[in-house]
Protein backbone atom coordinates (compact mmCIF):
# COMPACT_ATOMS: atom_id res chain seq x y z
CA UNK A 1 0.00 0.00 0.00
CA UNK A 2 1.17 3.55 -0.72
CA UNK A 3 2.84 5.23 2.23
CA UNK A 4 0.28 8.02 2.27
CA UNK A 5 -2.42 5.43 2.90
CA UNK A 6 -0.73 3.91 5.94
CA UNK A 7 -1.56 6.81 8.27
CA UNK A 8 -3.74 6.43 11.32
CA UNK A 9 -7.42 6.85 10.35
CA UNK A 10 -8.65 10.40 10.58
CA UNK A 11 -11.31 11.82 12.86
CA UNK A 12 -13.72 11.91 9.96
CA UNK A 13 -13.58 8.13 9.69
CA UNK A 14 -13.49 7.02 13.31
CA UNK A 15 -14.70 9.66 15.71
CA UNK A 16 -18.34 9.97 14.85
CA UNK A 17 -18.67 13.16 16.89
CA UNK A 18 -18.99 11.88 20.44
CA UNK A 19 -21.60 13.94 22.35
CA UNK A 20 -19.98 16.35 24.76
CA UNK A 21 -21.86 15.00 27.76
CA UNK A 22 -20.99 11.35 27.10
CA UNK A 23 -17.47 11.33 28.48
CA UNK A 24 -17.84 9.27 31.67
CA UNK A 25 -15.16 6.74 30.76
CA UNK A 26 -12.54 9.05 29.26
CA UNK A 27 -10.27 8.67 32.31
CA UNK A 28 -9.81 5.00 31.42
CA UNK A 29 -8.56 5.72 27.89
CA UNK A 30 -4.86 6.34 27.22
CA UNK A 31 -4.50 7.56 23.59
CA UNK A 32 -0.73 7.00 23.44
CA UNK A 33 -1.16 3.29 24.17
CA UNK A 34 -3.52 2.90 21.21
CA UNK A 35 -1.42 4.65 18.58
CA UNK A 36 -0.28 2.40 15.76
CA UNK A 37 2.42 4.45 14.06
CA UNK A 38 4.55 2.99 11.30
CA UNK A 39 8.11 4.34 11.01
CA UNK A 40 7.83 6.38 14.21
CA UNK A 41 10.33 9.13 15.05
CA UNK A 42 12.47 9.20 18.17
CA UNK A 43 12.37 12.20 20.52
CA UNK A 44 15.67 13.34 19.03
CA UNK A 45 14.28 13.08 15.50
CA UNK A 46 11.22 15.07 16.58
CA UNK A 47 13.46 17.73 18.14
CA UNK A 48 15.41 17.97 14.88
CA UNK A 49 12.18 18.47 12.91
CA UNK A 50 10.89 21.12 15.33
CA UNK A 51 14.14 23.07 15.24
CA UNK A 52 14.28 22.82 11.45
CA UNK A 53 10.66 23.94 11.24
CA UNK A 54 11.60 27.26 12.86
CA UNK A 55 15.19 27.70 11.71
CA UNK A 56 16.08 28.58 8.15
CA UNK A 57 15.12 31.93 6.74
CA UNK A 58 13.75 32.69 10.21
CA UNK A 59 17.06 33.02 12.02
CA UNK A 60 18.62 34.79 9.05
CA UNK A 61 15.78 37.35 9.06
CA UNK A 62 16.18 38.27 12.73
CA UNK A 63 18.42 41.31 12.11
CA UNK A 64 15.58 42.65 9.96
CA UNK A 65 13.21 42.19 12.91
CA UNK A 66 15.61 44.07 15.19
CA UNK A 67 15.94 46.80 12.55
CA UNK A 68 12.19 47.35 12.93
CA UNK A 69 12.07 46.81 16.68
CA UNK A 70 15.29 48.33 17.99
CA UNK A 71 17.98 46.65 20.09
CA UNK A 72 16.32 46.70 23.51
CA UNK A 73 12.76 46.11 22.37
CA UNK A 74 13.99 43.47 19.94
CA UNK A 75 15.44 41.36 22.75
CA UNK A 76 12.39 41.75 24.98
CA UNK A 77 9.94 41.39 22.11
CA UNK A 78 11.55 38.20 20.81
CA UNK A 79 11.40 36.60 24.26
CA UNK A 80 7.75 37.66 24.50
CA UNK A 81 6.90 36.23 21.06
CA UNK A 82 8.75 32.97 21.83
CA UNK A 83 6.96 32.62 25.18
CA UNK A 84 3.56 33.27 23.63
CA UNK A 85 4.27 30.88 20.77
CA UNK A 86 5.46 28.12 23.11
CA UNK A 87 2.35 28.58 25.26
CA UNK A 88 0.10 28.43 22.19
CA UNK A 89 1.78 25.21 21.03
CA UNK A 90 1.28 23.77 24.52
CA UNK A 91 -2.40 24.70 24.28
CA UNK A 92 -2.79 23.18 20.81
CA UNK A 93 -1.05 19.87 21.59
CA UNK A 94 -2.67 19.69 25.03
CA UNK A 95 -6.11 20.25 23.53
CA UNK A 96 -5.48 17.61 20.86
CA UNK A 97 -4.37 15.08 23.48
CA UNK A 98 -7.35 15.82 25.72
CA UNK A 99 -9.71 15.60 22.75
CA UNK A 100 -8.24 12.20 21.89
CA UNK A 101 -8.82 11.01 25.42
CA UNK A 102 -12.34 12.43 25.62
CA UNK A 103 -13.42 10.94 22.28
CA UNK A 104 -11.40 7.74 22.74
CA UNK A 105 -9.34 8.31 19.58
CA UNK A 106 -5.61 7.47 19.44
CA UNK A 107 -4.51 10.43 17.32
CA UNK A 108 -5.86 13.65 15.81
CA UNK A 109 -4.31 16.00 13.28
CA UNK A 110 -4.62 19.78 13.29
CA UNK A 111 -7.86 20.06 11.31
CA UNK A 112 -9.27 16.95 12.97
CA UNK A 113 -8.61 18.46 16.40
CA UNK A 114 -10.50 21.60 15.39
CA UNK A 115 -13.45 19.57 14.13
CA UNK A 116 -13.51 17.39 17.24
CA UNK A 117 -13.39 20.37 19.60
CA UNK A 118 -16.15 22.24 17.77
CA UNK A 119 -18.32 19.11 17.33
CA UNK A 120 -18.18 18.34 21.05
CA UNK A 121 -18.22 21.95 22.24
CA UNK A 122 -21.09 24.18 23.36
CA UNK A 123 -24.28 23.74 21.29
CA UNK A 124 -23.85 27.11 19.59
CA UNK A 125 -20.58 26.17 17.88
CA UNK A 126 -21.20 22.54 16.94
CA UNK A 127 -22.65 23.36 13.53
CA UNK A 128 -19.33 25.00 12.62
CA UNK A 129 -17.29 21.83 13.10
CA UNK A 130 -16.95 21.08 9.40
CA UNK A 131 -16.09 24.70 8.64
CA UNK A 132 -13.41 24.72 11.37
CA UNK A 133 -11.69 21.67 9.87
CA UNK A 134 -11.81 23.07 6.34
CA UNK A 135 -10.56 26.46 7.55
CA UNK A 136 -7.49 24.92 9.21
CA UNK A 137 -6.75 22.82 6.15
CA UNK A 138 -6.90 25.70 3.71
CA UNK A 139 -4.99 28.15 5.94
CA UNK A 140 -2.28 25.51 6.34
CA UNK A 141 -2.15 25.14 2.58
CA UNK A 142 -1.88 28.90 2.07
CA UNK A 143 0.81 29.35 4.72
CA UNK A 144 2.80 26.39 3.40
CA UNK A 145 2.66 27.72 -0.15
CA UNK A 146 3.70 31.22 0.89
CA UNK A 147 6.53 29.81 3.01
CA UNK A 148 7.86 27.90 0.02
CA UNK A 149 7.65 31.14 -1.98
CA UNK A 150 9.76 32.86 0.69
CA UNK A 151 12.29 30.05 0.39
CA UNK A 152 12.39 30.36 -3.39
CA UNK A 153 12.97 34.11 -3.19
CA UNK A 154 15.64 33.73 -0.50
CA UNK A 155 17.58 31.05 -2.39
CA UNK A 156 17.32 32.92 -5.67
CA UNK A 157 18.38 36.23 -4.14
CA UNK A 158 21.43 34.55 -2.62
CA UNK A 159 22.40 32.88 -5.89
CA UNK A 160 21.95 36.12 -7.81
CA UNK A 161 24.18 38.06 -5.42
CA UNK A 162 26.95 35.47 -5.47
CA UNK A 163 26.90 34.27 -9.09
CA UNK A 164 26.26 37.62 -10.71
CA UNK A 165 29.21 39.08 -8.81
CA UNK A 166 31.49 36.08 -9.37
CA UNK A 167 30.83 35.62 -13.08
CA UNK A 168 30.02 39.24 -13.97
CA UNK A 169 26.48 38.30 -14.98
CA UNK A 170 23.42 40.51 -15.14
CA UNK A 171 20.74 37.87 -14.68
CA UNK A 172 17.53 38.89 -12.96
CA UNK A 173 16.26 37.16 -9.84
CA UNK A 174 13.47 35.55 -11.88
CA UNK A 175 16.01 33.52 -13.84
CA UNK A 176 17.45 32.23 -10.58
CA UNK A 177 13.96 31.37 -9.32
CA UNK A 178 13.55 29.09 -12.34
CA UNK A 179 16.97 27.51 -11.76
CA UNK A 180 16.22 27.00 -8.06
CA UNK A 181 12.93 25.28 -8.83
CA UNK A 182 14.81 22.55 -10.70
CA UNK A 183 16.72 21.55 -7.56
CA UNK A 184 13.67 21.84 -5.30
CA UNK A 185 11.63 19.67 -7.67
CA UNK A 186 13.74 16.68 -6.64
CA UNK A 187 13.60 16.95 -2.85
CA UNK A 188 9.89 17.76 -2.82
CA UNK A 189 9.21 14.27 -4.17
CA UNK A 190 10.29 12.70 -0.83
CA UNK A 191 7.02 11.61 0.81
CA UNK A 192 7.77 9.98 4.18
CA UNK A 193 8.45 12.14 7.23
CA UNK A 194 10.97 9.61 8.52
CA UNK A 195 12.98 9.82 5.32
CA UNK A 196 13.10 13.61 5.68
CA UNK A 197 14.99 13.40 9.00
CA UNK A 198 18.43 13.18 7.28
CA UNK A 199 17.56 16.21 5.15
CA UNK A 200 16.48 18.13 8.26
CA UNK A 201 19.68 17.10 10.01
CA UNK A 202 21.80 18.31 7.08
CA UNK A 203 19.82 21.55 6.94
CA UNK A 204 20.12 22.11 10.71
CA UNK A 205 23.87 21.45 10.62
CA UNK A 206 24.28 23.78 7.65
CA UNK A 207 22.32 26.58 9.29
CA UNK A 208 24.40 26.24 12.46
CA UNK A 209 27.59 26.48 10.38
CA UNK A 210 26.14 29.51 8.58
CA UNK A 211 25.25 31.03 11.95
CA UNK A 212 28.75 30.50 13.34
CA UNK A 213 30.53 31.91 10.27
CA UNK A 214 28.13 34.86 10.09
CA UNK A 215 28.76 35.65 13.75
CA UNK A 216 32.51 35.50 13.06
CA UNK A 217 32.02 38.19 10.41
CA UNK A 218 29.81 40.19 12.76
CA UNK A 219 32.13 40.10 15.76
CA UNK A 220 35.34 40.77 13.86
CA UNK A 221 34.02 44.18 12.82
CA UNK A 222 33.82 47.11 15.26
CA UNK A 223 30.24 47.41 16.49
CA UNK A 224 28.86 50.74 17.64
CA UNK A 225 25.49 51.35 19.23
CA UNK A 226 25.56 55.13 18.93
CA UNK A 227 23.27 55.48 15.92
CA UNK A 228 21.23 52.31 16.43
CA UNK A 229 17.62 52.48 17.53
CA UNK A 230 16.89 50.96 20.93
CA UNK A 231 13.12 51.21 20.64
CA UNK A 232 10.80 50.99 17.63
CA UNK A 233 8.72 53.59 15.95
CA UNK A 234 5.01 52.83 16.21
CA UNK A 235 4.70 52.23 12.47
CA UNK A 236 7.46 49.60 12.59
CA UNK A 237 5.90 47.47 15.34
CA UNK A 238 3.70 45.41 12.96
CA UNK A 239 6.75 44.59 10.82
CA UNK A 240 8.72 43.55 13.91
CA UNK A 241 6.05 41.23 15.25
CA UNK A 242 5.22 39.87 11.80
CA UNK A 243 8.87 38.99 11.16
CA UNK A 244 9.39 37.62 14.69
CA UNK A 245 6.30 35.40 14.56
CA UNK A 246 7.20 34.20 11.07
CA UNK A 247 10.75 33.43 12.21
CA UNK A 248 9.86 31.24 15.16
CA UNK A 249 6.56 29.77 14.02
CA UNK A 250 6.36 26.19 12.78
CA UNK A 251 2.87 25.30 13.99
CA UNK A 252 1.95 23.38 10.84
CA UNK A 253 4.40 20.57 11.59
CA UNK A 254 3.80 20.40 15.37
CA UNK A 255 0.94 17.88 15.46
CA UNK A 256 2.21 15.83 12.51
CA UNK A 257 5.59 15.26 14.20
CA UNK A 258 4.03 14.76 17.65
CA UNK A 259 1.64 12.20 16.19
CA UNK A 260 4.58 10.28 14.71
CA UNK A 261 6.62 10.09 17.94
CA UNK A 262 7.59 6.83 19.60
CA UNK A 263 7.15 8.52 22.98
CA UNK A 264 4.68 11.42 22.57
CA UNK A 265 4.54 11.88 26.35
CA UNK A 266 8.01 13.48 26.06
CA UNK A 267 6.70 16.33 23.93
CA UNK A 268 5.14 18.65 26.54
CA UNK A 269 7.29 17.93 29.59
CA UNK A 270 8.87 20.90 31.37
CA UNK A 271 12.20 19.77 29.92
CA UNK A 272 10.59 18.06 26.95
CA UNK A 273 11.11 18.29 23.22
CA UNK A 274 9.06 21.46 22.69
CA UNK A 275 10.59 23.59 25.45
CA UNK A 276 14.14 22.57 24.56
CA UNK A 277 13.52 23.48 20.92
CA UNK A 278 11.93 26.87 21.68
CA UNK A 279 14.59 27.90 24.23
CA UNK A 280 17.43 26.97 21.90
CA UNK A 281 15.86 28.80 18.97
CA UNK A 282 15.15 31.94 21.01
CA UNK A 283 18.76 32.23 22.20
CA UNK A 284 20.10 31.86 18.67
CA UNK A 285 17.55 34.34 17.32
CA UNK A 286 18.37 37.04 19.85
CA UNK A 287 22.12 36.71 19.28
CA UNK A 288 21.71 36.89 15.51
CA UNK A 289 19.18 39.71 15.54
CA UNK A 290 20.88 41.91 18.13
CA UNK A 291 24.41 41.80 16.77
CA UNK A 292 23.37 41.63 13.12
CA UNK A 293 21.41 44.87 13.36
CA UNK A 294 24.05 46.44 15.62
CA UNK A 295 26.64 45.92 12.87
CA UNK A 296 24.69 46.67 9.69
CA UNK A 297 22.14 49.19 11.00
CA UNK A 298 19.81 50.56 8.35
CA UNK A 299 21.65 48.57 5.67
CA UNK A 300 20.30 45.32 7.18
CA UNK A 301 18.66 43.16 4.51
CA UNK A 302 15.99 40.48 4.60
CA UNK A 303 18.64 37.85 5.39
CA UNK A 304 21.85 38.66 7.24
CA UNK A 305 23.81 36.49 4.81
CA UNK A 306 22.95 39.00 2.08
CA UNK A 307 24.96 41.59 4.03
CA UNK A 308 28.14 39.50 3.90
CA UNK A 309 30.82 40.74 1.47
CA UNK A 310 30.62 39.23 -2.01
CA UNK A 311 34.37 39.57 -2.61
CA UNK A 312 35.44 36.98 -0.01
CA UNK A 313 35.40 33.24 -0.64
CA UNK A 314 34.29 32.34 2.90
CA UNK A 315 31.41 34.80 2.76
CA UNK A 316 30.29 33.55 -0.65
CA UNK A 317 30.53 29.94 0.54
CA UNK A 318 28.43 30.80 3.58
CA UNK A 319 25.75 32.37 1.44
CA UNK A 320 25.63 29.32 -0.82
CA UNK A 321 25.55 27.00 2.19
CA UNK A 322 22.56 28.92 3.58
CA UNK A 323 20.80 28.56 0.24
CA UNK A 324 21.54 24.82 0.23
CA UNK A 325 20.17 24.44 3.75
CA UNK A 326 16.90 26.04 2.72
CA UNK A 327 16.66 23.74 -0.29
CA UNK A 328 16.85 20.75 2.07
CA UNK A 329 14.07 22.29 4.16
CA UNK A 330 11.50 22.42 1.39
CA UNK A 331 10.79 18.69 1.63
CA UNK A 332 9.61 19.11 5.21
CA UNK A 333 7.36 22.02 4.26
CA UNK A 334 5.78 19.90 1.53
CA UNK A 335 4.82 17.20 4.01
CA UNK A 336 1.91 19.07 5.64
CA UNK A 337 0.15 20.39 2.49
CA UNK A 338 0.52 17.04 0.78
CA UNK A 339 -1.01 15.28 3.79
CA UNK A 340 -3.97 17.67 3.56
CA UNK A 341 -4.42 17.37 -0.19
CA UNK A 342 -4.02 13.61 -0.21
CA UNK A 343 -6.58 13.23 2.54
CA UNK A 344 -9.06 15.15 0.41
CA UNK A 345 -8.43 13.57 -2.99
CA UNK A 346 -6.49 10.35 -2.40
CA UNK A 347 -9.59 8.18 -2.17
CA UNK A 348 -10.66 9.30 -5.65
CA UNK A 349 -7.48 8.07 -7.31
CA UNK A 350 -7.03 4.42 -8.34
CA UNK A 351 -4.37 2.74 -6.23
CA UNK A 352 -2.35 1.89 -9.33
CA UNK A 353 -1.95 5.62 -10.01
CA UNK A 354 -0.96 6.72 -6.48
CA UNK A 355 2.69 7.30 -7.29
CA UNK A 356 2.00 9.15 -10.53
CA UNK A 357 -0.65 11.30 -8.87
CA UNK A 358 1.63 12.15 -5.95
CA UNK A 359 4.45 13.18 -8.27
CA UNK A 360 2.13 15.24 -10.45
CA UNK A 361 0.49 17.08 -7.56
CA UNK A 362 3.81 17.89 -5.92
CA UNK A 363 5.18 19.24 -9.19
CA UNK A 364 2.03 21.30 -9.85
CA UNK A 365 2.31 22.91 -6.40
CA UNK A 366 5.90 23.82 -7.14
CA UNK A 367 4.93 25.40 -10.47
CA UNK A 368 2.31 27.54 -8.70
CA UNK A 369 4.83 28.63 -6.07
CA UNK A 370 7.38 29.53 -8.73
CA UNK A 371 4.79 31.68 -10.49
CA UNK A 372 3.94 33.57 -7.29
CA UNK A 373 7.61 34.03 -6.35
CA UNK A 374 8.33 35.47 -9.79
CA UNK A 375 5.41 37.86 -9.36
CA UNK A 376 6.74 39.24 -6.03
CA UNK A 377 10.50 38.55 -5.98
CA UNK A 378 11.16 40.66 -2.87
CA UNK A 379 12.11 39.00 0.42
CA UNK A 380 11.30 41.60 3.09
CA UNK A 381 7.57 42.23 2.37
CA UNK A 382 7.00 38.51 1.74
CA UNK A 383 8.33 37.63 5.21
CA UNK A 384 6.12 40.21 6.93
CA UNK A 385 3.06 39.13 4.94
CA UNK A 386 3.45 35.43 5.73
CA UNK A 387 4.11 36.18 9.40
CA UNK A 388 1.07 38.39 9.69
CA UNK A 389 -1.64 36.60 7.75
CA UNK A 390 -0.57 33.00 8.27
CA UNK A 391 1.42 32.65 11.44
CA UNK A 392 -0.82 34.93 13.50
CA UNK A 393 -3.87 32.93 12.44
CA UNK A 394 -2.47 29.42 12.91
CA UNK A 395 0.14 29.80 15.65
CA UNK A 396 -1.68 32.29 17.88
CA UNK A 397 -5.40 32.60 17.19
CA UNK A 398 -6.33 28.97 16.48
CA UNK A 399 -4.85 27.43 19.68
CA UNK A 400 -6.58 30.15 21.73
CA UNK A 401 -9.97 29.48 20.13
CA UNK A 402 -9.70 25.69 20.47
CA UNK A 403 -8.55 25.87 24.09
CA UNK A 404 -11.40 28.25 24.96
CA UNK A 405 -14.07 26.09 23.34
CA UNK A 406 -12.71 22.90 24.89
CA UNK A 407 -12.73 24.45 28.38
CA UNK A 408 -16.14 26.10 28.04
CA UNK A 409 -17.98 26.88 30.25
CA UNK A 410 -16.42 26.04 33.62
CA UNK A 411 -12.81 24.89 33.16
CA UNK A 412 -11.08 28.29 33.31
CA UNK A 413 -9.59 28.17 36.80
CA UNK A 414 -9.68 30.70 39.62
CA UNK A 415 -11.55 33.89 38.69
CA UNK A 416 -11.68 32.52 35.12
CA UNK A 417 -8.08 33.62 34.62
CA UNK A 418 -7.63 31.21 31.71
CA UNK A 419 -10.43 32.96 29.83
CA UNK A 420 -8.92 36.40 30.49
CA UNK A 421 -5.50 35.16 29.36
CA UNK A 422 -6.97 33.68 26.17
CA UNK A 423 -8.81 36.93 25.42
CA UNK A 424 -5.56 38.92 25.68
CA UNK A 425 -3.74 36.43 23.43
CA UNK A 426 -6.58 36.64 20.93
CA UNK A 427 -6.37 40.43 20.83
CA UNK A 428 -2.61 40.20 20.27
CA UNK A 429 -3.15 37.80 17.38
CA UNK A 430 -5.81 40.03 15.81
CA UNK A 431 -3.50 43.03 16.07
CA UNK A 432 -0.71 41.21 14.22
CA UNK A 433 -3.16 39.81 11.67
CA UNK A 434 -4.87 43.10 10.86
CA UNK A 435 -2.19 45.75 11.18
CA UNK A 436 0.69 43.54 10.04
CA UNK A 437 -1.11 42.35 6.91
CA UNK A 438 -2.09 45.92 6.03
CA UNK A 439 1.46 47.28 6.18
CA UNK A 440 2.91 44.23 4.41
CA UNK A 441 0.46 44.68 1.54
CA UNK A 442 1.46 48.34 1.29
CA UNK A 443 5.09 47.25 0.97
CA UNK A 444 4.23 44.72 -1.75
CA UNK A 445 2.13 47.28 -3.67
CA UNK A 446 4.99 49.79 -3.42
CA UNK A 447 7.22 47.39 -5.40
CA UNK A 448 5.16 48.04 -8.53
CA UNK A 449 4.68 51.78 -8.09
UniProtKB/TrEMBL annotation:
All copies of domain Amino acid transporter transmembrane, residue ranges: 44-441
Location in or out of the cell: Membrane
Cellular component, GO, one term: vacuolar membrane
Pfam families documented for this protein: Aa_trans
Domain of life: Eukaryota
GO terms of molecular function: L-amino acid transmembrane transporter activity
Membrane protein topology class: Multi-pass membrane protein
Listed transmembrane segments: 44-66, 72-93, 135-159, 171-188, 195-219, 239-259, 271-293, 313-336, 356-376, 382-402, 423-448
Keywords of the record: Membrane, Transmembrane, Transmembrane helix
The protein's name: Proton-coupled amino acid transporter 1
Native source organism of the sequence: Culex quinquefasciatus (Southern house mosquito)
Amino acid sequence: MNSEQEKVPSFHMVAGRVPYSDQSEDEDYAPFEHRKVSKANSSLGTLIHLVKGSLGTGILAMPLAFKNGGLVFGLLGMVLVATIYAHCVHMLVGTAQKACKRSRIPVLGFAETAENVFANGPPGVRRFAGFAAAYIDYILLIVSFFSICVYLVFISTTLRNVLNYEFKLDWSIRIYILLTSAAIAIITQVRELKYLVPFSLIANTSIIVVFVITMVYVFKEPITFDDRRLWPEATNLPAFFGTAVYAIEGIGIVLPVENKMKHPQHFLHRFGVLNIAICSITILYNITGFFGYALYGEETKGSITLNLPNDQILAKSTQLLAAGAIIFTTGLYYYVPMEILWRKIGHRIPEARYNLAQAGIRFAILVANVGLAMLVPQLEPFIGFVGSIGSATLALMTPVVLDTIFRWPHDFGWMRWQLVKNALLGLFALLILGVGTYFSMLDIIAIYE
